[in-house]
Write a structure and sequence with these properties.
The complex is a heterodimer of chains A (98) and B (275).
Chain A (H helix, E strand, L loop, with lengths): L2 H17 L1 H4 L18 H15 L5 H6 L3 H5 L3 H18 L1
Chain B lengths: L2 E4 L2 E8 L10 E5 L8 H13 L3 E5 L16 H14 L6 E6 L1 H12 L4 E7 L5 H24 L2 H7 L3 H15 L3 H6 L6 H5 L5 E6 L6 H9 L4 E5 L6 H4 L1 H13 L14
Parallel strand pairs in B: 3-4, 3-5, 5-6, 6-7, 7-8
Antiparallel strand pairs in B: 1-2, 2-4
Helix pairs in contact in B: 1-11, 2-3, 4-6, 5-6
The chains are: A mainly alpha (98), B alpha/beta (275).
């Protein structure tokens, strides 16, 4: 399994924790899946997901700063891949620095 | 951190710590509006920039809202103040905090500035009318709208229709609103709410900032503030109505951070991150 798949799988796993397995059971979640249109994620569920990811990755990621750089439309139309790429970038940078 | 037990209720709350900030960084508590609102409206708008600028941010869902527990009673502004004080206690926040309230959240924030002044370092009202006849009319209007909505939800089958159509988000929203309006005392509590007296408003000693939309029905609250709160800062945003938080996020962010920067050395007005 590649590193990319690992981050994507972890995001999917935490998504299931937030919204429940029943709802996501029939959906294949890829990097092109959108949180709003495809997953019908509520805005508050995205916040809960971000908190879980912040807890999972700790100081290597900073979701407050991540969303501070976007407007509401950008956040609501975000693809899963955008979030995954951010986590990959930050965790790779942290590893390089360490 | 998501679940915090306070005043007998399980609250959904988040504390966002600025990176590398000193222990005495200012704390901002964002207080959202009624019924369909929750902490995400601030998470997506002002919270991130405030953290990047150096403030500690507390976001929480009011009781019955968002992902917080929904008790059957306790929805007055005074209950909301008790909840928030208990939440701050549970989080170990003893120092006075800056309160930023949007819409009904402003009523709650202003009430706290009046009744628990020692815990409030500053008060920011976004589109909230808190005192006098304007506030009384607004509260009555809210209560009427909520009563009508409650009745409609009880008698039409919208929730089941959305659920059948697989529209998860709408079905869940309707379930939430129905539960809050028809299974709690919220509507009665809002209807019984009293506005602050002008003398109470005038007794607020902390710095106050009010931001209103030029076309909002609440714009008269701006002059109410100017008249009764000496030294307050009031900004009226041209062309906007009640939804300034969502529609003028950037302007509001700059106003809020500049105002904070004048009051605390720890908040930087330049929110642009390097790189």
């Amino acid at each position: 399994m590649s590193k990319s798949d690992t981050v994507l799988d972890e995001v999917v796993q935490l998504l299931i924790e937030v919204v429940g397995e029943d709802f996501l059971l029939d959906l294949e979640i890829t990097r092109d899946t959108t949180f709003s249109d495809d997953l019908a994620l509520e805005s508050i569920e995205f916040v809960a997901l971000a908190e879980k990811l912040q807890h999972r990755y700790g100081g290597r990621v900073d979701f407050a700063a991540f969303v501070a750089d976007m407007d509401i439309t950008e956040i609501m139309t975000m693809k899963v891949g955008t979030l995954v790429a951010y986590i990959e970038e930050r965790t790779t940078a942290a590893r390089s620095a360490g | 951190m998501a679940e915090v037990h306070a005043n007998g209720v399980c609250f959904n709350a988040q504390v966002l710590e600025p990176q590398g900030a000193p222990a005495d960084a200012p704390t901002i508590v964002f207080v959202h509006g009624l019924v369909t609102d929750n902490l995400s409206s601030f998470y997506y708008t002002l919270a991130g920039p405030a953290v990047v600028a150096g403030a500690r941010v507390i976001l929480y869902d009011l009781r019955g809202h968002g992902r917080s527990q929904r008790p059957e009673a306790g929805y007055t502004a005074d209950d909301g103040v008790t909840d928030l004080c208990a939440l701050l206690d549970a989080l170990g926040m003893r120092d006075p905090v800056y309160l930023v309230g949007n819409s009904y959240g402003g009523i709650l924030a202003a009430r706290m500035a009046v009744t628990v002044p020692d815990r409030v370092a500053g008060l920011v009202l976004i589109e909230a009318s808190c005192a006098g006849t304007g506030a009384a009319a607004w509260i009555e209007d809210m209560a009427n709208t909520l009563s009508v909505t409650a009745l409609r939800l009880e008698h039409d089958g919208a929730r089941d229709q959305y659920r059948m159509a697989g529209q998860r988000r709408m079905a869940r929203l309707i379930t939430h609103v129905d539960g809050l309006l028809n299974r709690t005392s919220l509507v009665d509590d809002v209807a019984a709410e009293r506005p602050l007296r002008p003398t109470e408003l005038a007794a607020i000693r902390c710095p106050v900032l009010g931001v209103y939309g030029e076309r909002s029905e609440l714009v008269a609250a701006a002059s109410e503030l100017t008249r009764h709160v000496p030294g307050c800062t009031v900004r009226i945003l041209p062309g906007l109505a009640h939804t300034v938080l969502r529609e003028a996020t950037d302007v509001l962010r700059d106003i809020l951070l500049s105002w904070l920067a004048e009051r605390t050395a720890h908040v930087l007005t330049d929110t642009r991150r390097a790189g």
